[in-house]
Amino acid sequence: GVFMYNHLQQKVRNAEALAQKYKQQQEALSAQLQVVYEHRSRLERSLQKERGEHKKTKEDFLVYKLEAQEALNKEKQDSMNRYGALSSQHKILKNQHEDVKKQLLDLQLQHNSLKLEHRKTLETHSQKYAQLQQEKDSEVSNLQDTVFKLREESKLLRKAHQEVHSQLLSAQAQMEEFRQLKEALQKMPSFK
């Protein structure tokens, strides 16, 4: 009985020691579990915060994406409008260029025609000028001949005039002599 009692006491002590050991392990595990819970709680809060930030970032990204899309669409529309305006302006300028090109061609043809006409007119004027120069030279030559003849005639006329003047003086002298003679005769009684 004593042996059984000692044996049971020994078992009880062993059980108590084992229970104490398990209790310590349980306390250690509880402490570890508490740390794990706290860590998990911190992780959950951090995850919640991250989710909130992620959601906000996602919403901001969606707003940015919408704004960027709208801006891109607006820029695309503006670009299309500018392209349309530039295309219209290009067509207008192209038509104007064609018109100017046509006008230039017409002006070149007109210039060539005027150049040819000018050349013909210049040749005609040169011929007329040469003809007029020839006629003028001929006329000058004729006038010089006429002047020479007139000078000769003038010399002859002067000479004839001097002769007539001499004859006139001689006739006047004779007339004076006849007058004096007549007067002398009239004074003579026998003449009466």
TrEMBL record:
InterPro entries in alphabetical order: GOLIM4
Cellular component terms per the entry's GO annotation: Golgi membrane
UniProt keyword Coiled coil present: yes
Coiled coil start-end: 5-60, 90-142
Keywords: Coiled coil
Protein name per Swiss-Prot or TrEMBL: GOLI4 protein
Gene source species: Aegotheles bennettii
